[in-house]
Amino acid sequence: PSQDGLFIANIRFRGLEVSVDNTWIVPYCPLLTKIFNAHINVEYCNSVKPIKYVCKYVNKGSDIAMFELTSGGNDLNEIHQYQMGRYISSNEAVWRILNLPIHDRHLTVINLSVHLENGQRVYITTENAAQCGKHLGKQHSQSFFRL
Fold first, then answer.
1. Closest CA to 25 of 46, 4, 39, 45
2. DSSP secondary-structure letter at 35?
3. Could you write out the DSSP letters of every residue in 14-47?
4. pTM of this prediction?
5. Which H/E stretch holds residue 16?
6. Could you state, in order of their start, the residue ranges of all structural domains in the chain?
7. What are the pLDDT digits (tens) for 49-105?
8. Which residues does residue 9 pair with via DSSP β-bridges, in sequence order?
């Protein structure tokens, strides 16, 4: 191991010496590898940005475009000449043809009062850990965790 904890190995391959460290190792889950009979790259994702990225093009709405219709005649009407329209991508078109939901409703956001005056205090130790869940009151914040 090197000074910063990385494992470094020098490997000879076809006459070349290559220095390899453990930054090239991809995390994996042996259970998923066995179930699907394939290597699955498992990484921790600590934000909703990847999910937003995947759903962005279906949920973002359509692009608006201005287009012009012309005819061979001499009657020029500039108001009817320019029309507003929208572009529907292939993803959105298929989504709408299959009648899949474009948006979803969620529960109302409620502020939970965590530190209430004269509120219930709970001390969890190894001896009472099993009993703590049985004796919770009907406080609003405790009801949230039962959803």
1. 39
2. H
3. TTEEEEEEGGGPPPB-HHHHHHHTS--B-----S
4. 0.24
5. strand 16-21
6. 1-42, 60-105, 106-146
7. 777 776 765 556 556 666 666 666 666 666 655 555 666 777 778 888 998 887 777
8. 20
